[in-house]
Amino acid sequence: MLFFVKNQFNIVNILFSLSLVLINLQCAPAKLNGTCDPESESFVLSALLEFGSTDGSYLCPIFSGLNPLRLDYGTDFLVIKQGEPIVTLKPFVSEPIDRCESSPSMPFGLVLDESNCSISGTPLTGLNSTKFMITASNRTKQTTFPLVIKSLFIPKFAFVANVGSGLINSYTINATTGALNAGGFVAAGGGPESMAISSDQKYLTVANRNTNNLSHFSINPINGNLTIIGTVPSGGNTPVSVVYHPSKNLFYVSNADNFATFSVNPLTGNLTLENTIPKIHASGSAIVNPLGNFLYDTFYSGNMIESYRIDSTTGILSPNLTQVIPSDIRPKKLAFHANGKTLYVIYDTNSNITTYQVDTNTGFMSPVFPLTPSTGVVSGSIASDPLGRFLYITNRDTNTISMYGNMPLSGELIPLSPNSVATATEPLGITVDPSGKFLYNTNIADSTVGIFIINQTNGSLTSNGTVGTSTSPAVIVTAGTNP
């Protein structure tokens, strides 16, 4: 229906434009055999071809002022790296423009050429996925192109939560080799099973399942040492997951009985409980999509995936479910493709991976591919690389990590060959560093972190050793810094 309405609208515009051309040229000398002659039998066909084209050239000069201004970067998602110059991104523009501007302004270090909308420069900061509205205009026309830009942080620190000891280990990351250098440790609460880093990389928040509270730390930007800011109630009972909004000073806690939204003072790090909403179902792992529009969570015992809309201004969750969709048995963990258009789900006691395509405007999920098998039965966790190329899963029963490639447009998973790499005993947590160069996993049975180098061409993993942790490491996260 949308396609029909859109075409109907275009036909009306074409006929209206043709009538103007005919009126303006009714006294022009006749070119009876020319396809650009309004009195020619081929003129209507020329007009239809012109108004349906997107190449910016004109079959007939008289059409040059009637076509809409067109701007196209060839992609709606641009991934760049902090501190590395980008190849100039030159868009297609259908005709000369007088001005080009962006809202919000380009990331620090990037330059938008006002004369042709080209983007160049060296990003000096890391940035989570942010939508930039690029507007090109001339004296009579204007058009806007939405471009999502993500600037990958240089990796600096790693943090590990240990459910056995309740301690958080900190490490510095060698940005060349991925090696971890052990730093200090701090105490969290009981059963720290989930951690999250704030979007500005300044704070680490830990959900303590057994003590119903949150441990909130500041991160030293020089050495990664953690300093406790406060320990606060989680806003509900049994906090099982914590996740930050990608661009606001907010995070969400998935408790057994509700969702709690906390704000973070950007200067002091102090926490304020802003809102709670009751859960319809007792859910588990939660994740926010890369643009911060929707929150998704697993309904573990009900075999479903749920979604909630996030208010674009306040960041508060809607109390009403956006969608509930069936999943396989006991959904456990979630991961998004970097562009936010594909969601992956793994399960607690089977070897399947579900791939959902996601409408970024409505948040609706659609299962479009058959279940993808993993190389284990008892899945641990799941991580996608920040460039949207690869996906990895820990398998506790086989002591392996499964490896997959992503189809760039559809998000469909393609098993790598070989499909898995060996780990130490009982791999559980997993993460890819902010630059997409290294992968880390926790091995809960032997209290180590596995270090892997990611092949940037095919996604395969090469072991670079292990480093010790405290007792029973469950979760690992990584962080960068901004100037």
TrEMBL record:
Pfam families according to UniProt: Lactonase
Any single biological process term in GO: glucose metabolic process
Signal peptide annotation: none
Keywords for this protein: Carbohydrate metabolism, Glucose metabolism
Molecular functions per Gene Ontology: 6-phosphogluconolactonase activity
Source domain of life: Bacteria
PANTHER family attached to this UniProt entry: 6-PHOSPHOGLUCONOLACTONASE (PTHR30344:SF1), 6-PHOSPHOGLUCONOLACTONASE-RELATED (PTHR30344)
Family: Belongs to the cycloisomerase 2 family.
Protein name: Lactonase, 7-bladed beta-propeller domain protein
Species of the source: Leptospira terpstrae serovar Hualin str. LT 11-33 = ATCC 700639
